[in-house]
Amino acid sequence: MAYFSGLVRSTLSTVGLGGAHANFPYTVGEPLEHQESDSLWTLHKGTKKEDQSEVTVFVYKTTQRSDHLPLTKNAYKRFRTMRHPHMLTYLDGIECPEYIYIVTQSVIPLSAYLRENRHDQLISWGLYTIAQAVKFLNVDCKLVHGNLRSSSVYVTPAGEWRLGGFETLCNPSEPDAVIKTYHGLLPSIQQYCPPEIQSQNWSSLENGSLDGWQFATLIYESFQGKLNTAADLSHTDTIPSTMLRAYKQLLAPAPNSRMTVAQFMAAGTQPRSFFDNEFIRTNLFLENLSVKDVKEKNEFFRQLGGHVEKFPVSFSTHKVLPELLKSLEFGAGGPQVLQAVVKIGNLLDDENYGKYITPTIVKLFSLPDRALRYCLLENIASFLPHISDKVVNNSIYSHVAAGFVDTAPAIREQTVKSFLTIVPRLNESTVQRDAVAALSKTLYDPEPGIRTNTLICFGKLGRYMTPSTHQTMVGPLFARSLRDPFVHARAAALMAISATAEWQLPKDVANRILPAVCTLLLDPEKPVRTQALKTATELLKVVEEEAQTMPESAQPKTATSGAVGGGPGGQSPNSTEGALQEGWSGWAVSSLSRGL
């Protein structure tokens, strides 16, 4: 324990958060494994002390290069004042003589993310969101970013891109605009600048042409990789063909003819253009879900089930799933949403499944919505393996069993089918005490199909019931079902008897079950007769095997010949045994001849 305490103190000391700033509500951890060489900041993992939620901490040491201080101070100021859905979310910060700290939502650098997730759909959506943020800065705020490149973009756990890099963010019309004085101090900035900026011509800043050019460099680095020189921008083999024309217009040499980011957005959202795809439409709908009407939501959820498996896993689990669960919580979407949730849930490990999905499923089972309950029962085999036995026994089983007394036949039938999945997860006492009794009720159901499925279910679940349960409850129920007026129910009862015969007492098989089966050997329906013959043959084997283990006679052996049947006209026990071994016809003829 002392080691870990020392480690925490060491880490805090490294980033300067001890002493006077001990009340800082975030704990700063180790630096991220991947750091941007073009960034002035060192990124650290962090956690919020109150709830241990993960954050990212941008750390700048003021003593490392004093000439960078105006840039980092400007970034700190802009982080505190700028708000946009696609910009890095600022949570907290502190400025002290030796350090500047900026706490944001948990992210990693874009370049680190693209090493393992170069997915065209995510890149397309990422560029869309960054373009939205830059358009907001240029058009709505009349600001210029001036540091737009991959090292200024960060990615959330959901794969969402967020704009940062605010070191030169400013109003270019101001006389002391930071971009005009300190822009050249940004690391490796030259290859990201258009010709006029490289020649110190700042007159084109106000029309957004600088950010337009730099947005093209972001496109390049998103698809191609690190930009080493401005000449590399002409290598376009990996850039989508639908985007290529607009990409080249962003790189127009003359500022006045160069496409702005706002114009790029307008071009990309045209029908069949590079931003017109199912993935982006899904994202946009999710972001505006709260203002959509019921009809629009239902249609969206209906279509989502067919698309969600094609989406990147990180996007489905971190962005789509929370919105779907939120919709279910408020009663929107119903079965369509649940089906999509089940598909996404299969991508999660059991720990995250229990954290995000299980509470919602338990709550949904308690709701009176029949369509939703039917969907839950229909998909129970998909989600139950991810749920702990404790939750199944304590929170789900009782809601499932309640379906046996539902007035809707479809619910009762689906409840019967769901028992094939849930019974193996129940503890033994629940199976013997409650589950068998609950399932047996549907053998009296007015719907013949439900009675038939119940018998099939009993046959398949036989191994989960004790021999005592088979002998006292299940066997008599099957015998009754042999008289069911529905032909398929009688056939199912015969098959269930065959499947569970090993747990019946041979004496019961011979005295009760086999005679009842034999009555169906001449059933009016051929399928029943055929199955009855198969079942009777199997039961006879059970009886035969038991008979072979029995003694030859239950009569006590005596040494005198005057025992029962003895004397001059009688037989000894041994002679009776011999007669029995001759067969029934020989024994009868012998008796008659002696009588004469």
TrEMBL record:
PROSITE patterns, per the entry: HEAT_REPEAT, PROTEIN_KINASE_DOM
> Domain Protein kinase: where?
9-275
Query: Compositional bias (Polar residues) spans?
Result: 550-561
- Pfam families annotated for this entry? PK_Tyr_Ser-Thr
| GO MF entries | ATP binding; protein kinase activity
Region described as Disordered: spans on this chain: 547-596
Q: Where are the transmembrane segments?
A: none
In this chain the HEAT repeats are located at 513-547
Q: What is this protein called?
A: Armadillo-type protein
**Which organism is this entry from?**
Dimargaris cristalligena
Taxonomy of origin reads: Eukaryota, Fungi, Fungi incertae sedis, Zoopagomycota, Kickxellomycotina
